[in-house]
Amino acid sequence: MALADQAPTGARINPAAAPGRSWIERIPPGWWIAVVVLLAMPMVANNFWLFQVMGWSFILGMIAVSLTFLAGYGGMVSLLQMSIAGLAGYMVAILGPSGTTSISLGLAWWIALPAAFLVAAIFATLSGALAVRTEGIYTIMITLAIAAAFFYFTRQNYTIFNGYSGFNLVLPPRLFGVNWRDPVPFYYLCLGCAALCYGAVVYISRSPFGLALQGVRDNPRRMAALGFNVTAHRVAAHALASVFASVGGILLVWQNAQIAPGTIGIPAAIDILVVAVIGGLRRPLGAFVGAFIYVILQVFSPDVLGVFGFSAERFKLIIGLGFLAVVLFSPDGVLGLWDRWRARRARRVDPLTGAPR
Amino acid sequence: MDKFARNHPVWALVIALLVAVFLWLVLAPWPAELEAAVGRKRIFLNALLGGITLGALYFLVASGFTLIFGLMRIVNLAHGSLFLLGGYIGYEITTYTGSWLLAFPIVFVVVGLLGLAMQRFVFAHMEGEELRQTLVSIGLSVVLADVMLWYWGGQSYTTLAPAFLRGPVELPLISSINPTSGEAIFIRYPSVRVWILVAAIVIGVAMWLVLNRTSLGMLIRAGVDDREMLAASGVRIQLVFLAVFVFGAGLAGMAGVVGGTFQSLSPGEDTRFLLASLVVVIVGGMGSIVGAAIGAAVIGVTEQMGLVYAPTYSVVFTFLIMAAVLAFRPQGLLGAGR
C-alpha cells in the first residue's frame, strides 16, 4: 500500500498565512494565474483545442478525480469509475432523447439527469458494498471483474443498452438558447463542472466525513474502536465518488454525441487508473494534470511518432511506458516530482554565506 | 465425507439427490417430454463438455496466477498478456516447424524466461509493496499488449491441431436412441478437446503431487503460510519465488498454445483470460490449486450453459456466482481465512 500510505492529509495548514488575512488573500498567486488563463483561453485557442483537448481533459480529469478521491483519501483503488461514468452516460441516452428512438424514452433533461445520477449512485453503492468486503489488491481485482461484467453485459443486452452499437445522437439540451455542444459553451460547461468537482473533493476531504475516511484509510481498526462504522464510511465514499464520475460520464456522452460498450471497456477503465497515477494520487489536482498529459500525448503523438517513422497507433506504447516509468520512479506521480523539486530548491543555500536563499 | 453426512444429514441428502439427478441427466437417454421442454440432449451434453474443456483451459491459466498470488502476494495483471504471447509464439512455431508438440516446451521456456525477467528485475525490487506491484503489472500488460499488436496485427490466428488430434471421437455417453432401429447413438466430440481436458487433469494432479508430496512443495506451502519465518529459517526464498514465477508464467504460455488451438488468438484475448482467471481465483479461493480447479470448472460450465440456454445473460451468471461467493464466503470456496 505504498501509494496510499503517503497519501494526503486533508487540511494542509499554510504556516505563512497570517491569521488576519481573508481567505481570498491567502490563495497563492499561481492559482490566480491558472484561473485567468483557463477563463481567457477561448479568446486565443481554436475550436479543436477547446473542444477536443481541453474539454476531454476536464472530462477525463473528473472521472479520474473520483478515483483519486477513493484511492487517495479512502485507500481503495477502484477500477469501476469508468463503468459508473458510462452507466450515467447510458442513462442519459436511455431516458433522454437519442438517435435510437425505439429504446430512448425522450424524457426532459430535468428528469433524465437526476435519474442518471441516482442510477449511477445506486450501482456504485451496490458494487462498493461488494468491493469493501475485501481490502487492498483484492479491491482492484473485484472492481476489475465487475467492470468487465458490466462491459460484456452492455455489449450483449439489446433491450436496454442496445448492444454492440449503443446510442448515437445523444445531444445536450438547448438550455437558455445556447447550443452546449458548441466549442466555447462546452468548454465553459466542462471547466465549471471540473472546478465544482475539484472544489467538492477538496471540501469533502476537510469535512468531518473526509477526515474520518482518511482515518479509516490509515487505521481501520482504531477507527472502529473509536466508534466509527468503517464499512459505512467506505460504502459512502463509493457513493460520493460516483457523483464526480457521473458528471464526467454525462459530459463525455454529450461530447462524443454517442455511447457504446467500447467507451467503458477494460482498456478505458485502466486508462482512468493510468491518468490518476500519472498525475499523482496524493492530491485531487493530480487527476486533472494527469488527464491533460494523457490527452496531449494522445492528440499529438501521431505527429511526433510520424516524425520518427512509427505508426500513430504506437501511442498506447508511449502511455504504457510512461505509466511504468512513473510507477517505478515516482510513485506519487508528476505532482510528486514537482513537490520534490520545490523541496530541493527550498533547501538550497547560498554557497558563500550558508544562509538560505 | 462420512463425518459431513453424520453432521448434516439433510444437506448430505440434498447433495446426493442433486448428484443422482445430474448423473441421470448425463448418462440416461432423455424421455421425449424432457427433450420437448429443455431441448435435445445432444445440445445439453455439448454445452456441458464444452464448459468442462473451457474450464480446463481456465484452470491452466488460473493455476499459475493463483500460485504466484498465494506465494508472493503479487497480483500479476500481466498474466493474460503472457497467455496471449505464448499463443502467438506457439502459432509461429507450429507454422514454421509444422510440429504442434514442439511448441509446448519452447513456449514454456520463452514465456518462463520473460516471467523470470519480470520477477527478477521488476517485482523483486518492490517486495511487500503490493499495490505498486499491481500497478506495474498493469503497465506491463499495456506495453506487452501494444507490442504484440504491433508485431502480430489485429487479425485473429488459429493454430492448426496436428493430424492425430483432428476429427471427432466417440464418447461412451448416449446422445439419443434411434427410434427405428432402437440402437443408441453416442455423442461425438472433437478429440483435441478431450486430450486437452486429459492434459489439464494430468497437469493439475502433478501440481498437487509436487505441492503436497515433495520437499519443494513443502517449501512453497511454507512460503504461502509464512514468508518471513521461512526466510528466517535459512531458505533462499528468492529462488523459490523465481521458480514459482517462472513455472506460473510458462504454464500461462502453454495455455496460450492450447487456447490458440481450440479457440483463436486476437488482441483482447489477453484481458478475457486475465478476467477469467481473476473470477476463477476469486470463486475458488486465492492461492489454492484445488480451489482453482473447482472454480475453473464452475465458471467454464456456467459460461457455456449460459451461452446455450440464455445467450444474453451468460456473463451475468458468471458475475452472479462471483458476487454470491464474495457475499457469503469472501475468501473463496477453498480459500484460507485471511
Description:
With 357 residues, chain A is mainly alpha-helical. Chain A has a single domain, classed as Orthogonal Bundle (ABC transporter involved in vitamin B12 uptake, BtuC), CATH 1.10.3470. In chain A, 69% of the residues lie in helices and 1% in strands. In chain A, helix 6 packs across helix 7, helix 8 runs antiparallel to helix 11 and helix 13 packs across helix 14. The longest helix of chain A has 28 residues. Chain A is globular, with a radius of gyration of 21 Å. The two termini of chain A are 37 Å apart. Chain B has 338 residues and is mainly α. Chain B has a domain of 230 residues. Helices cover 73% and strands 5% of the residues of chain B. Chain B is built from 14 helices and two strands, in the order αααααααββααααααα. In chain B, strands 1-2 form a two-stranded antiparallel sheet. In chain B, helix 4 crosses helix 12. The relative contact order of chain B is 0.17. The chains are: A mainly alpha (357), B mainly alpha (338). The interface between A and B is large, with 41 and 40 residues.
Corresponding CATH architecture of chain A: Orthogonal Bundle
CATH class call of chain A: Mainly Alpha
CATH fold group of chain A: ABC transporter involved in vitamin B12 uptake, BtuC
Distance between the termini of chain A: 37 Å
Strand order of the largest sheet of chain B: 1-2
Identify the most extensive interface between protein chains: A-B, 41 and 40 residues
Q: Supply Rg of chain A.
A: 21 Å
Q: Mind describing the biggest β-sheet of chain B? A: 2 strands, antiparallel
Structural class of chain B: mainly alpha
Strand content of chain B: 5-15%
